[in-house]
Design a protein that fits this description.
Elements: H1 2-17, H2 26-52, E1 56-62, E2 84-90, E3 99-103, E4 113-114, H3 124-135, E5 140-142, H4 156-165, H5 168-171, E6 174-176, H6 178-186, H7 190-210, H8 223-237, E7 246-250, E8 277-282, E9 285-286, E10 289-290, E11 293-299, H9 309-326, H10 335-348, E12 353-355, E13 358-359, E14 392-404, E15 409-421, E16 426-428, E17 437-439
Parallel strand pairs: 1-5, 3-4, 5-6, 11-17
Antiparallel strand pairs: 1-2, 2-3, 7-8, 8-11, 9-10, 12-14, 13-14, 14-15, 15-16
Helix pairs in contact: 1-7, 2-6, 9-10
Length: 448
């Protein structure tokens, strides 16, 4: 906790001097990432190995074809595996510490100690087998999974080589480490959660800056112009994005093409006009954590000083659907059970909508329970059957379709906000949108 307080104090100091946002220098980012990794290995990993019933976990990867899990175990200065990197984690009993070894030419950071000397044993696989025999584990977890790509990182060649070198008597001990890998990826520590609010806040601030008169001139600026402003802004700030942002328009006119929009077919570019409703889908990556956010803005007409009430009312329907969904989060419920409960309540309130919420953390679309999909509002096999655990983070993603008499057509209220499930309730990382952003922002000192 002391380290967390120091980090927050440092972030506050940065904000006093930074022209824009409190983004840490690269060296400090590296220190924080390694600090968090150490905390996770000492506190999160032992509990998860016990929960999964796995006493040995092998993570095997080759350079440029990395297992998604190994990237979260490498020190900050390792941007990839080196040659073949094998990490061995062994916990012989419920009260034991986790032994962390690197069957590699080097120590892997300060936590995984080198356990292979090529001068003494030239064959890396034979050295791995020696270490396994010495410990004689009950279950050897390997990253193979049909339901989670995140937990399926052991490639075919490495799997065949493992079987070829491992004595047949140990083959029956091999098991999928799916639950362990997913648990490792989805579980957040207190330190990570303390900073996740700040990370989400940076994302919110970038979104608000882009959806403002600083970037948008109605009648001139196109949606594509705004998208590329976001890409440049992200790069300038020293953070990253894990997907290309989208900005799209809904408007009452008959020539509006929002109904044609799909992931790979966007009717953009369109020039933004007064009376347009803008929607953005945007995410950043910072300190190995990801955000995924969707918000709405309205371009004021010349005679308007505020957003029309019918649009704010529509937004409130989207907020209500968020409440219905998050109130359905219960520890132990599967993603499918949460979706079913939320949709039952949604229908009872005569709300027309779609729920497609997903975990968030080391990946933007992360490991954990899938809670609906935009193209499947029924049971999602596999990832939808995974249960909800505390200390996990989600992108509360959905839309409510609200018919507007003023438009003579529906408006899709598309919302997405990062939130933390603490085991009892869902808490938004940095609040959620409950009012439209306006373009331009209204200045209270300007009067008629």
């Amino acid at each position: 906790m002391k380290n967390t307080i120091q980090l927050i104090a440092f972030l506050m100091t940065c904000s006093l001097f930074a022209q824009d946002f409190a983004v840490l220098p690269q060296k400090k980012q590296s220190e924080v990432t390694d600090q968090w990794l150490g905390e996770r290995l000492e506190t999160v990993l032992p509990e998860l190995m016990d929960r999964a019933g796995i006493d040995m976990w092998l993570v095997i990867s080759r350079e440029y074809n990395e297992d998604p899990v190994i990237k979260t175990l490498l020190p900050s200065t390792w941007l990839a595996a080196r040659r073949r990197t094998i990490l061995l984690m062994y916990k012989p009993g419920s009260d034991a510490q986790v032994e962390k070894l690197a069957v590699a030419r080097y120590n892997v950071g300060s936590k995984f100690k080198k356990a292979w000397d090529p001068e003494q044993q030239p064959n890396q696989w034979k050295r791995l087998v020696e270490l396994i025999k010495e410990r004689n584990p009950e279950k050897i977890g390997i990253n193979i999974s049909k339901d989670f790509g995140h937990a399926d990182g052991l490639n075919h060649t490495e799997y065949e080589l493992l079987l070829e070198n491992l004595p047949a008597s140990f083959h029956k001990k091999l098991t999928s480490a799916e639950d362990l890998a997913v648990g490792w990826l989805e579980t957040r520590t207190a330190s990570e959660l303390a900073t996740y609010k700040h990370i989400q806040g940076i994302a919110h601030d970038i979104i608000q800056e882009g959806l403002s008169e600083k970037v948008i001139t109605p009648g001139v600026t196109s949606t594509t112009d705004v998208v590329w402003w976001y890409r440049d802004r992200i790069k300038d700030l020293g953070v990253e994005t894990w997907f290309h942002p989208t900005v799209d328009i809904q408007r009452p006119s008959a020539d509006s093409k929002e109904h044609l929009r799909t992931f790979d077919n966007n009717p953009d570019p369109e020039t933004l006009r007064p009376g347009d409703v803008l929607h953005i889908d945007f995410g950043i990556t910072y300190l190995r954590l990801n955000t995924d956010t969707q918000q709405l803005a309205y371009v004021l007409k010349a005679d308007e000083k505020e957003v029309p009430q019918y649009l704010e009312d529509a937004l409130s329907v989207g907020n209500r659907l968020q409440d219905i969904l998050t109130s359905s989060f219960k520890t132990g419920r599967t993603g499918n059970e949460i979706l079913k409960a939320a949709r039952t309540q949604m229908k009872s309130e005569d709300i027309k909508g779609t729920i497609y919420t997903h975990p968030m953390g080391y990946h933007g679309h992360a490991a954990g329970p899938t809670i609906g999909m935009w193209d499947n509002q029924g049971r999602v096999p596999g990832s939808g059957d995974y249960p909800l655990y505390p200390n996990t983070v989600y992108a509360i993603e959905l839309n409510a379709e609200v018919y507007l008499e003023e438009w003579q057509k529906p408006l899709r209220v598309m919302l997405e906000e990062g939130a933390h499930f603490d085991g009892d309730e869902v808490v938004y990382l940095n609040g959620r949108q409950k009012e439209f952003l306006t373009i331009p922002r209204q200045k209270s000192y300007l009067k008629e």
